[in-house]
Amino acid sequence: MEQTGAREGGPLAGPPRVRVPEQAGAESRGPAANRGERTVAVPGPRRTVRRSSVRGQILAALRAALVGGELAPGEVYSAPALGERFGVSATPVREAMQQLAVEGAVEVVPNRGFRITERSTRELAELAEVRALIEVPVMLRLARTVPAERWAELRPLAEATATAAAGGDLARYAESDRAFHGALLSLSGNQQLVQVADDLHRRSQWPLASGPVAGRRADLVADAAEHMALLEALAVQDLGVVSALVKEHFTGAAG
Asked: How would you list the strands of the sheet with 113-116, edge to edge?
């Protein structure tokens, strides 16, 4: 029987699984098509996911594992191995991984599984440039037209990022960070813009291939502080500060 969830040649024991209720008739776990594949154990704490579908729960959990560095860039993970980690069959894992492949977070490796995309600092810089080209003009327009009280309503979202940053929780920070930026852009009334910007934002949060994401609490705290500073600049229509903050924010560690 395939030793799912362990490195090739390593022990089977791994981190505790997250149990997600299966739907009746779900595909049962079986041996991998290629019995010589390298399977990587998935570290990390137990996660509780509460979405309506198994696929949605697994997709959210995999995204959190990507941001938190639990899924290492360059490594190949099989659907059965990840299914064992999350306590589900391989089917919803494959479906979630296919979505991540569409987003560019993973690459399909035939008969083996999915390789986590290795990102470079150049790619991160390119993403920052594209985000700035899209969002800086929008922020400047909103600064001229949105009343100060609307910016004050977004303070709880900025505070949520500060709380996540103080705890060093990368996955939680990534989620709250996107919520904050999405709320800002939604004031433009352009949902296509919000969706495009969110996709770019998510891609900018994936871990770099050059090193781990641990020990970045100071970067997160500084990034979260820029959220509050941006709201203050928007409220007083300080266009120079708004432009500088947005550009600097995108080139930061957490963006």
From this structure: 76-77, 113-116, 106-109
> What is the band of 13 on the pLDDT scale with cuts at 50, 70, 90?
very low
What's the rounded Cα separation, in Å, for the pair 31 and 19? 20
User: What does the DSSP 8-state code read for residue 44?
Assistant: S
Task: Tell me which CATH code domain 121-250 carries.
Answer: 1.20.120.530
β-strand pairing of 76-77 with 113-116: antiparallel
Closest listed residue to residue 78, CA positions, set 120, 106, 118, 46: 106
More confident residue, 1 or 204: 204
Beta bridge partners of 109: 113
Q: Which two tokens stand for residue 52?
A: 């309506």
CA 19 to each of CA 39, 58, 86, 235, 246: distance values in angstroms, whole numbers, following the listed order: 20, 11, 6, 45, 40
Which class is 1-118 in CATH? mainly alpha
Q: Say whether 76 sits in a helix, a strand or coil.
A: strand
Task: List, by residue range, all CATH 1.20.120.530 domains of the chain.
Answer: 121-250
| Structure confidence at residue 207 as a pLDDT band (50, 70, 90) | low
Whether the model pTM is above 0.90 = no
